[in-house]
Amino acid sequence: MVCVLFRIAELFHSHDVSRVFCHLCITLLSVIYITPPRSQPVQVVLHLKEGRKTSDAFCAKMAESESLEITAEHERILREIESTDTACIGPTLRSVYDGSEHEHFLDKLETRIKGHDREIEKMCNFHYQGFVDSITELLKVQVVSTNQQLQDSGKEMVSRMEELNRCLVQQRNIATTIDKLTLCLPVLKMYSRLNDQMKAKRYYPALKTLDILEHEFLPKVIQYRFSRIMMDALPKLRQQIRDVSMSDLKDFLESIRKHSEHIGQTAMRQAEQQRGLDSSAPRKGCGPETHLGRKDAGSSSDAEVDTNSPASEQDSGILEEDDDVEEEGARDKFENYYQQQRRQQARLVLSAQSNMTAKSFPLEHETLEGYKKYFNQIVGFFVVEDHILHTTQGLVNNAYMEELWAMALSKIIAVLRTHSSYSTDPNLVLDLKNLIVIFADTLQGYGYLVNQLFDLLLEIRDQYCEVLLKKWAAVFRQLFDDDNYTPILVNSQEEFQNVTNQFPLVDVALEEESFPKKIPFSQFVPSIFAQVKAFTQACLKFSEDLHLSSTEIDDMIRKSANLLLTRVLSSALQSLIRKTHIGLTELVQIIINTTYLEQSCKHLEEFVTDITNVSPETVHTTKLYGTSTFKDARHTAEEEIYTKLNQKIDEFLQLADYDWMLVEPLGHASDYLVDLINFLRSTFAVFTHLPGKVAQTACMSACKHLASTLLQLLLNPEVKQLTMGAIQQFNLDLLQCESFASSEPVSGLQGETLQLAFIDLRQLLDLFMVWDWSTYLADYGQASSKYLRVNPSTALVLLEK
C-alpha cells in the first residue's frame, strides 16, 4: 500500500498535490505500524478527534467558497483517482493541470483526505484492540523465531569476532614491534658497522659512521637503554680515532718528507714533457704568458702526479680523516701541528744542497744534480700542499699557502742568486736556467705565482753573459796565439769555399784568380767571425722560454754582442797589438784583418736579424758597435807600427860608431845606415796591402824619426869635438837617406815630400860644409833665407864642437 501511495505521489507534478499524498501516506503508516501501548487508547482517540474537527472546519470553508460546477468537476476527478488504477492515473491528473483551479482542487483534495482520515480513525477505534493483539502475537512469533535464528547465527559470528579481535590485537602488536625494530635496527647496524670499521682500522669511514650515528640515529632511540650505552661509548671511540689520527698524521708527515723528492721529480718530468709537446706546436712569437696568483679551481695542474707513491697511498684516507677530526673540536690542534711541522720541513727543503756550489764541486754533473735535487724537493713539497688544499677542508687554506710560498720564494731566490754566482761554466749556467724554467713552469701549473723567478732569470742572464764573455775572452786569446799572421793560402776551390762559408768574403778579382790563391786576411778573421756568431747563438739559447718578446730578445742579444765586441774582443786586440813579440809584419796583418772584420759587421747585423726576426730599422733597436771596435783596434795597430818602426830605427842607430875625429871621409855611407835603409825598403814593401794613408804615414814618421835621431847624434853632449871629415862622412849617410826618400818607397808619396823630413839636417850640414856663415847671418829671419830651417842654438853648439 505504501508503494502504491508513493507511486501516486510521483505521478503528481504539483508540489501541493505531492504534499497531500505524502500526508496521507504518513497518516496510514502511523495507524498501521505505530502501536501505542494499551494504556493510552484515549490519547489516540483524542488525537484523531482533534484532527477530525480541524478537517470539518476546513471543508466547511471550502464548500462555501466553491461554485457548484467546480465542486462537481473536482468530485469527479477525486472519484476517478480513488477508483482508477495507479498506472492509469496520469490522464486524470493531467486534467487538473489543464484547469486553473489548482488551489481549489488542492483544498478539495485535502478535505477528501481528511474525510478518509476520519473513516480510518473510526475503523481503527472499532477494531483497535483486536488489531493490537494480532499485531502483538504476530510480532512475538516473528521475534522469537528471528531471535532464535539470530542467536544461532550469532554464536559463530561472535566466536569469529573474538578471534578477529585477537588477530587485530596481535597485528597491532606486530606493527608496533616492526616500527620499533625499524627504528632500532639501523642504529644497531650502524653501531655494528662502526665496530667493524674500527677493527679493520678504517678510521675515516668509522668517523663518518660515528658522526651519523650520534647526530641522526641515536636521538631517535634515546628512550632505550642500549642507546645510552652507545652514547657513553662514542666519546671513547672518538678519542681513540683522534689519537690514531694524530699518530697517522705524524707518519704521513714523515712519509711525504721522504717522498717529496720523488713527487717533485715526477711533476717536473711531466711538466717538461708537456713543455716539449707545447714547443713542438707552431707558436706565434714568444710573448709572455700572464699568470696571476693561485688558481681557485681544484684542478691545480694538467699533469697528474704519480699517485703510486707511499705518500699518495696514505693521503686519501689520512687527510680526510684529519678533516673530520677537526670538525669535532680539534681543528686548531691539527691545523697548528700540521702547519708547524710543514714549516719546519719547508725550512729544511729550502736550505741549499751541499753540492750546489761549483766552487766546492767543480764537476758540472755533480753541481747540476745538486740543483735538481733541490728543485725536486721544493716542487714535491708544494705539490703535496696544493693536493692537501684541494682535497681537505680546513687543514690548510689559501692564506697559509700564500704566506708559505712567499717565504719559500724569497729563500729560493736568495739561494739561487748566491750559488749561481759561483758558476764559471756557461753550460752549467744554461742548464741551471733550464732547470729554473721547468721548476717555475711546474709550480705555475699548480697555481703558484712565479714572476719573481723569471725576474731572477733575467739577473742570471746577465751573469750568464759575463761567464760567456770570460769564456770567449779565452777563446779569442787562443785564436790570436794560434794564428800565423800570414795571408791564407788556398790550393783548391774546396778550401776556398770552406773559408767563404765561415766568412762573407766578396772579392771578384780574387775569385777570378787561379789557384793557389792568397786571401789577404789570416785565419783568425773567419775564426773571430764564427765565434761572434757562436756567442750570439749562445745568448739566444738562454733567452728561450723566458716569456720574452722578440724585441726584448733582440735587444738582449745586441747588447751582449756589443759587450763582446767593445769590451772583450777590443781588449784582446789591444793586448795582442801591444805584445812585445808582435812585429811589424804581424801588425800589418792585424790591420788588414781588422779592416775585413769591420766590413763584416753588416753581415753580423743580418745574422742577428735572422735569428730574432726583428728588423734593424725598428724603433729603439740597438746597433752593433763592431765597426768602432775594429776601427779603434786598427788605429792602435797603426800607432804601434809607427812606434815599433821607430824602435827598429833606434836599434840600427845604436850600431852607429862614428869617428868624430876622422880626417877624411870613408867615401861611402856607413854600414849600419845601409842596413837600416834596406830594412826600411823591405818593410815598406810589406805595407802594400795596408791602406795608402797608413803606409804613407808610417814612411813619413820613420823618415822624421831617422832625421831627428841623426841630428841628436851630432848634438850628443858626449861628443865634445868633431872634424870636418866626420861631418863629410855624416853627409854621406844623409845623402843615403835622401836617396831613399826620393826613391818613393811607398806608393802615392812623392820623394820631395819625404825629403822634407831631412831638410833641417841638410841645411845645417850645408852651412858647415860650405862655411857660408855670412849668408846665414845676412839672411837670418827672412822667409827666403837659404838656411831658414837652421836653429841658431843648434848651429852654435855644432860650431863649438
TrEMBL record:
Q: Give the GO cellular component terms, alphabetically.
A: exocyst; plasma membrane
The alphabetized UniProt keywords are: Exocytosis, Transport
Region of interest (Disordered), residue spans: 263-330
Organism's domain of life?
Eukaryota
Question: A single GO BP annotation from the record?
Answer: Golgi to plasma membrane transport
For bias type Polar residues, the affected ranges are 267-277, 298-315
Q: Which residues form the Exocyst complex subunit EXOC6/Sec15 C-terminal domain?
A: 452-801
Residues in Exocyst complex component EXOC6/Sec15 N-terminal domain copies = 108-268
What Gene3D superfamilies does this protein's entry cite? Answer: Dsl1p vesicle tethering complex, Tip20p subunit, domain D (1.20.58.670), Exocyst complex subunit Sec15 C-terminal domain, N-terminal subdomain (1.10.357.30)
Q: Where is the composition biased (Acidic residues)?
A: 318-327
Q: Which family does it belong to?
A: Belongs to the SEC15 family.
Q: What does this protein do?
A: Component of the exocyst complex involved in the docking of exocytic vesicles with fusion sites on the plasma membrane.
Protein name as annotated: Exocyst complex component
| Organism whose genome encodes this protein | Eptatretus burgeri
